[in-house]
Amino acid sequence: MYSITSGAFMGFGDIVQQGIEYQSHVLPRRFNWARTARMFFVGFLMGPMHHYYYVYLDKMLPNADFRTVAKKIACDQMFASPATILCFFYGMGTLENKTLQQSTYEVRQKFIYVYMGDCLFWPPVQFLNFYYLPTHYRVFYINIATMIFNIFLSFIKHYDQNKNQ
Questions:
Q1: Count of other CB atoms within 10 angstroms of residue 119
Q2: pLDDT value at residue 162
Q3: Cα(77)–Cα(84) distance, rounded to whole angstroms?
Q4: What pLDDT digit, counting tens, does each position of 26-79 carry?
Q5: Using one digit for the tens of pLDDT, what is the confidence trace for 94-110?
Q6: 151-163 CB burial, b ≥16 within 10 A, e <16
Q7: What long-range pairs does 134-140 form, CB within 8 A, spacing at least 24?
Q8: CA distance 64 to 53
Q9: Which of 52, 70, 49, 51 has its CA nearest to residue 61?
Q10: What Rg, from alpha-carbon coordinates, does the chain have?
């Protein structure tokens, strides 16, 4: 279930971004379904990772008070976010048949932009998540928020490719 929703929301975020790119005359055709399939597959693979991360985090920090929520957000920004960004870029690079060196180059070029966007977007989203939601709703909530963030992520990921079209 987590894999399917995670993949679907990542794919949908890419579809929205492609629509924006098409309307802005950046893309010559409306949809690149192979691109969306790659986004779906990476999201599909990351779903269980997110699920088990939140289960583990709640076991290690079980309270929902302000101090504990702040610790969870700090863990999310220091550990989960960088790991997720790296999994995304290396996973997409693998699916695009890029070499490890090519993927590493892309990470070096784009990581800081994605992480800065991440630091602006996720702390307030995670505050609501950790302060108000029970564990079993977290991945679904995060997948919805991720769909919104994935529009930005898809833009950053495909920016170079779109410039060259």
A1: 11
A2: 56
A3: 10
A4: 888 889 999 999 999 999 999 888 889 988 998 999 999 999 999 999 999 999
A5: 999 999 999 999 999 99
A6: bbbbbbbbeeeee
A7: 135/54, 135/55, 135/58, 138/54, 139/2, 139/5, 139/6, 139/47, 139/50, 139/51, 139/54, 140/5
A8: 16
A9: 70
A10: 16
CA dist., res. 136 & res. 160, Å (int):
38
Within 10 angstroms of residue 101's Cβ, the number of other Cβ atoms is: 9
pLDDT at 1 over 80: no
Neighbours of 62 (CB within 10 A): 9
Task: Name which residue leads in pLDDT, 123 or 26.
Answer: 123
Q: What is the pLDDT of residue 82?
A: 97
- Cα dist. 26→18, 21, 54, 160 in Å? 9, 5, 37, 11
Sign of the dihedral through C-alpha 70, 57, 14, 19: negative
User: At 30, is the secondary structure helix, strand, or coil?
Assistant: coil
The owner of tokens 């784009």 is: 110
* Alpha-carbon span 69 to 62, nearest angstrom: 10
119: enclosing H helix or E strand: helix 100-132
Total residues found in the chain within this entry:
165
